[in-house]
Design brief:
The protein has about 475 residues and is mostly beta strands. It has helices spanning about 105-110, 310-315, 370-375, 430-435, 445-450, 455-465; strands at about 1-5, 15-20, 45-50, 55-60, 75-80, 90-100, 125-130, 135-140, 145-150, 160-165, 170-175, 175-185, 185-190, 195-200, 210-215, 230-235, 275-285, 295, 330-335, 340-345, 350-355, 360-365, 400, 400-405, 410-415, 420-425, 440-445. The chain has a domain at about 275-465: Immunoglobulin-like (Sandwich), CATH 2.60.40. The protein contains 6 helices and 27 strands. It has a 6-stranded mixed sheet with strand order 7-6-9-14-11-12, with no helix packed on it. Strands 18-17-20-25-22-23 form a 6-stranded mixed sheet, with no helix packed on it. The structure holds CU-O-CU linkage (C2O). CU-O-CU linkage binds near residues 61, 357, 424 and 426.
Length: about 475
C-alpha cells in the first residue's frame, strides 16, 4: 500500500499510524511520532509504503499527541475471500464507535495536565458516536447473514454493543480469526475490533434497537446530559417505527459481555514456550510532587526523545543494544526471535487498554477473572501477578493487539520477537499516552541496522523541525 499523507492542517503536526499492521521489514512506516519518524509538518507530504500481509479489521489514525480524537481516525478493512466464514455472510457493515469532544482536544489538554487537575481526572466526552453520528440505521434484508465489523476508534471510553433480540457470533478480534462464539453482547475497549455475524429474522414488520453503552467506570463524573446508552437501528423496514421504548442495558447489574480470553484462534497457533525474556511493568498514576498528574510504567514516565528512537538505533552502531541510550523512553531491547513475556500489573483503580505496535500477542493470563472484572466491584488493593502461582494457560491462546488491563489487576502475554523494529507499547487512552503511559520495545536493533533504508522524505520531516539525525 502506498499512502501519501499531505498535512493540510495549517498549524498542526501530524503522522499516520496503521493500527494493527505489523509493518514487517518497514518499521519506518509505522507512523509513531518520535519513535519511527518526525511529525509531518504543515504543508508537507510524507509517504507510507508497506506490504499488507494481514486480513481483517483495522484502523488508522494520527499518532502525535492530542490529535486523533478530533477525527483523524478511520477504519481500514482488508478483505479475505479465503476466510473460513467468508461464505457464511451476504453483506457487511463497518461500524465505528467513538467518544466525542465538542472542543478540540489540544484546547482541553492544558487544563487536563495542569495544577488544577492533580488527580488526572480525564476530560468527560460530550457524546458517543456510531459511525460518526448520533443516530444511525443499518438497513437489512430478512433471512440474511451480515458481518458487522466493530471498531472502537474512541480516545478514552470502552463500549458495549448489543442488538435487541439478535445473537452475535464473534468470528474475528483485532485481525485474528476465531472459532465462531455466540454471545448477546460484546465489549470493545478503545482501539479494539470485533467482527460478528448476525442473521436477520424472517419478517420485516419491525426494526430492532442496536444499543451501545459507554463504560462509565472510566468516568470520574457522569454529567446528567451525557447519554451512556445510545440507540441505533437494525432497520428491516424504513417505514416501520424507530421509536419503540428505548432498550437500555444495565451493564452494572449483569455480566453481558463476552470474555475474549476464552476465544480460540482458528489457526490453532499453540501456546508459546517459556520466555527468553520477561518484562514486568507496573502501571502507576501519580502526582510527583509538582502538582501535575503523571502516568508511569515502573518508575518512568515516557518522555519523547529529541531524535526518533529508530534513527538513534540506526546511528548508534554497537551501542544500539544498550537501552540506556534512549533516554526516558522506557526502552527494552529484545533479542531477535526470542520469546518475550510481558507481565503488566495495575496499581491504578482504572482499566487500561494496552496496545503493542508491530505484533499481536497471546493473552495467557489475566486477573481478576472476567466476572469479577465486569462486576464493577474492583479489587480493593492491587494484586501483582505471581509467575510461580497461576492457573493453567490456554492451549491455543487468543491473540490481540490491544488488551484491557483490569483495575488493580494483572495481565500476561507472550509473543515472538520476529519483527525487527522500534515498537511503542502504550495505553491507548489518548490522555494516558500524553501522560507518559508508554514503553518502547527495540526489537533486534542489529537486524534493523542491517536491513532498513529510510526514504529521504522521512528525514526531510526531521530537517524541517530542526531535529538532528544521522541515519543511514
Ligand atoms: Cu492505535 Cu500507538 O496506536
Amino acid at each position: 500500500m502506498v499512502f501519501h499523507a499531505h498535512n493540510g492542517l495549517g498549524d498542526k503536526d501530524t503522522s499516520i499510524h496503521f493500527h494493527g499492521m505489523f509493518q514487517n521489514g518497514t518499521t519506518d512506516m509505522d507512523g509513531a511520532n518520535m519513535l519511527s519518524q518526525c511529525p509531518i509538518p504543515p504543508g508537507s507530504t510524507f509517504t507510507y509504503n508497506f506490504t499488507i500481509n494481514q486480513n481483517g479489521t483495522y484502523w488508522y489514525h494520527c499518532h502525535v499527541d492530542y490529535c486523533y480524537p478530533d477525527g483523524y481516525r478511520q477504519a481500514l478493512i482488508v478483505h479475505d475471500k479465503d476466510s473460513y466464514f467468508y461464505h457464511n455472510y451476504t453483506d457487511e457493515f463497518v461500524v465505528t464507535l467513538s467518544d466525542w469532544y465538542h472542543e478540540l482536544v489540544e484546547d482541553i489538554a492544558p487544563n487536563f495536565l495542569s495544577l488544577y487537575n492533580p488527580t488526572g481526572a480525564e476530560p468527560i466526552p460530550d457524546s458517543f458516536l456510531f459511525n460518526d453520528t448520533l443516530n444511525s440505521s443499518l438497513p437489512v434484508q430478512p433471512n440474511t447473514t451480515y458481518m458487522i465489523r466493530l471498531i472502537n476508534i474512541g480516545a478514552f471510553v470502552g463500549q458495549y454493543f448489543y442488538i435487541e433480540d439478535h445473537k452475535l457470533r464473534i468470528v474475528e478480534v483485532d485481525g485474528v480469526y476465531v472459532d465462531a462464539a455466540e454471545t448477546d453482547t460484546v465489549f470493545l475497549a478503545v482501539a479494539q475490533r470485533c467482527s460478528v455475524l448476525v442473521t436477520t429474522k424472517p419478517t420485516t414488520d419491525k426494526n430492532y434497537a442496536i444499543v451501545t453503552v459507554a463504560d462509565q467506570t472510566l468516568l470520574d463524573t457522569v454529567p446528567s446530559q451525557l447519554k451512556l446508552n445510545n440507540t441505533n437501528w437494525l432497520e428491516y423496514n424504513s417505514s416501520a417505527s424507530h421509536d419503540q421504548a428505548v432498550v437500555t442495558l444495565d451493564v452494572t447489574d449483569s455480566i453481558p459481555a463476552f470474555d475474549d480470553i476464552g476465544l480460540v484462534p482458528y489457526d490453532r497457533q499453540e501456546l508459546l514456550g517459556e520466555p527468553d525474556q520477561r518484562i514486568e511493568l507496573a502501571v502507576v498514576m501519580a502526582e510527583l510532587g509538582n502538582g501535575l498528574p503523571y502516568a508511569l510504567l515502573n518508575d518512568i514516565t515516557y518522555t519523547a526523545p529529541k531524535v526518533p528512537v529508530l534513527y538513534s538505533v540506526l546511528s548508534s552502531g554497537d551501542q544500539a543494544v544498550n537501552s540506556q541510550i534512549y533516554g526516558d523512553t522506557n526502552a527494552f531491547v529484545l533479542g531477535h526471535n526470542e520469546v518475550i513475556e510481558v507481565v503488566l500489573n495495575n496499581n491504578d483503580t482504572g482499566s487500561h487498554p494496552f496496545h503493542l505496535h508491530g505484533h499481536n500477542f497471546q493473552i495467557i493470563d489475566r486477573a481478576p477473572s472476567f466476572e469479577e472484572f465486569f462486576s464493577y466491584k474492583p479489587l480493593a488493593n492491587p494484586i501483582p501477578y505471581d509467575p510461580n502461582n497461576h492457573s493453567a494457560f490456554p492451549t491455543y491462546p487468543v491473540r490481540r493487539d490491544t488488551v484491557l488491563l483490569p483495575p488493580h489487576g494483572s495481565l500476561v502475554f507472550r509473543f515472538v520477537a520476529d519483527n525487527p523494529g522500534v515498537w511503542i507499547f502504550h495505553c491507548h487512552i489518548d490522555w494516558h499516552l500524553a501522560q507518559g503511559l508508554a514503553s518502547v520495545f527495540i526489537e533486534a536493533p542489529r537486524q534493523i541496522q542491517e536491513q532498513l533504508t529510510v526514504p529521504e522524505d522521512h528525514y526531510a520531516a526531521c530537517r524541517a523541525k530542526g531535529v538532528p539525525y544521522t541515519g543511514n
